[in-house]
Each structure stands twice: as C-alpha cells, then as structure tokens.
Amino acid sequence: MVELTKARIHHECPEHDNIKSTVHIASLDDLKMIRSGKLELYHSNLCFHLVPDVTVTLKEANRVLKPGGKLCFSTIAQKREDSLLLPLDLIAEQLNFPPYKERDLFHLGERETVKQHLENTGFRLDLFWYQNIGVYLANFEEYLATTNTHELLAYKEKLTEEQVQKFFAYTRENYARLKRNNTPFDFTCAMIVATKL
After folding, report:
1. CB 61 within 8 A of CB 164
2. What pTM did the predictor assign?
3. Which one has a higher pLDDT value, 52 or 192?
4. Nearest Cα residue to 163 out of 108, 69, 98, 75
C-alpha cells in the first residue's frame, strides 16, 4: 500500500517531485510518528465514519495540529433507502461486524452531531455542507468492486470463512432488495472544515 501511494503521488503530481513527502501506515487514532503540533492541515477522505471511536480520533487530530490548524474531512451522510452504502450498513448490523456495533455508518451525517464531537475535542466547526452524488451500478459485481466491502469490513478483525460466506450472501440479498432499475444509488457526503482552538 505504501509503494502504491508513492507511485500515485508521483503519477498525479509529477511537477512536485522535488517536494519531500513521507508515507506511513497508521491508524487515525494513533499517529505517533507525527510530533504534537506539527501539522497546519489534517485531511481525511471518507474514513471518520469507520473509526471505532470518533472522540479518540479527533483528539489525536487535535494533538498533531498546530493552534489554528485546519481539520478537513468527509464522511458518508443522509441515510436514505437508495443510499449506496445502506446494503453494507444492513450487513454489518446483521453480522455484528466491528466497528459498527451499536451504531451505523451514517452516524456522522448530521451537522449538530459533528459540531458536538468537534467542540468536545477542542475544535470550532467552520463549514459543514452536503455533496450529493448519484452512482449508477450496472450489476452486483460492479457494486462489490465499487464499495470494496469485504476489505472494508475485514480491516479490523479477520473474517472467518463462515462470516465471508454470510457476508456475500447478505450483500447480494440486500443489493437485490434495494436496487432499482435505471436508478442511481445516492452517495451523499458531508464535507467538514474545522479549526483547532
């Protein structure tokens, strides 16, 4: 993964080859390789709804940011019947996969919820807005390829063979139930910008 990331940086930003960058494998709740108060900007794309403890993750973001530093992140939002990740959310609930126990994938989709989390961890909410995207998927295989659902659920605890079989069975069942012909899935994200106080 580290080598793929380095290659992608080089491919997408060839004009920045002279800029030093460091790539690490890390967890959002433990960024020990970054000293306190080092960063001016912390950016995370579609990860915060997956972390086991949002408070711990935000406290770690606060630690690595300089005073006045910016936290920018996105998370899936607005749970609807045609939400792209609703089948995944239903499967996680049925199989009791971590880190979804006692909550769902859409738990950071409301402004007031995010604002409260930020204020409790030393941030001020500056911006919160929804970005609406329609995703059309031709078939079940494309759905699996798009969401990488097996990898998403397996990242914390290794799945047993029985869980893998249940996962794919539930995924196909829920996908078929929710799929509407020629209707795109909704993939609405909440985009958040906050300042470290």
Report:
1. no
2. 0.75
3. 192
4. 98
